[in-house]
Design brief:
This protein has five helices and 17 strands. It is α/β, with parallel strands linked by helices and 227 residues long. The strands form three sheets. Strands 1, 2, 3, 5, 7, 10, 11, 14, 15 and 17 form a ten-stranded parallel sheet that branches. It is globular, with a radius of gyration of 19 Å.
Length: 227
């Protein structure tokens, strides 16, 4: 069964509701193990998301295709069986897992959001951004994310963000990544954008890109850079 067909809309919890809920469920100082249990029950009662970012049944369908290993090799046949659903694949992988690409090219249907620690080892695979949408390829919203040996070629963006956008994350690495022939007409860079994040750029190459805010990269707090 195609896991993409089972996808249900994800509930988004407004930030103010999350803060209010945590405050409401706060245990008293010096509380017992029982009080900690009640906090968990309280959070579950008001409907905050649990540790998995997608539903259990959806991940069961995905894991029936990719297995439960912390290292997943993604080839063309597996991607086709997944219905090209890269988002569900990364959502259902264990935290800190490795997604290794064994294919020449990945054409994304939408931007992929990385919400938990992961390494994506591209082995030189070319990543094509969502066609005709003006969107980027990856949004990183987690610490401890590594993108390596990937090539981003010919992406067309209309965004204030780059085709890789990092949101308040630490220990993010781009290693042996290439940006070639990408264009952003929306005011953002053609390659990488980041704010309030700490990351490393190792052997990152770029040519024939067109963008604003620094051209290819617009970022602060680069802890290490090798071009």
């Amino acid at each position: 069964m195609n896991p993409k067909q089972q996808r249900r809309p994800r509930r988004r919890i407004p930030t103010n509701l999350f803060v209010a809920t945590v405050a409401m469920c706060q245990p008293r100082r010096g509380g017992s193990l029982l009080s900690a249990f009640l906090v968990v029950a309280c959070l579950a009662t008001v409907g905050l998301p649990q540790s998995d970012s997608v539903g259990g049944s959806e991940c069961e369908a995905v894991r029936a295709v990719i297995g439960i290993s912390a290292r997943v090799i993604l080839d063309s046949a597996t991607l086709k069986e997944m219905g090209n659903d890269v988002q569900s694949l990364v959502d259902c992988m264990p935290g800190g897992g490795v997604l290794e690409l064994d294919l020449a090219e990945v054409v994304l249907d939408d931007s992929v959001v990385l919400r938990s620690p992961i390494t994506i080892a591209g082995n030189g695979a070319a990543v094509q951004c969502p066609s005709g949408q003006g969107k980027g390829a990856f949004k990183i919203r987690s610490d401890d994310v590594t993108l390596s040996t990937l090539a981003f070629k010919g992406c067309f963006l209309n965004s204030l963000e780059g085709l890789i956008h990092v949101e308040s994350s630490k220990n993010v690495s781009l290693e042996n990544v290439e940006f070639e022939g990408n264009k952003n007409i929306g005011g953002g860079p053609a390659g990488l954008s980041a704010a309030q994040s700490d990351f490393r750029l190792l052997n990152v190459k770029a040519w024939n890109n067109t963008g604003s805010l620094g051209g290819v990269i617009a970022a602060l707090n680069i802890s290490e850079a090798q071009y």
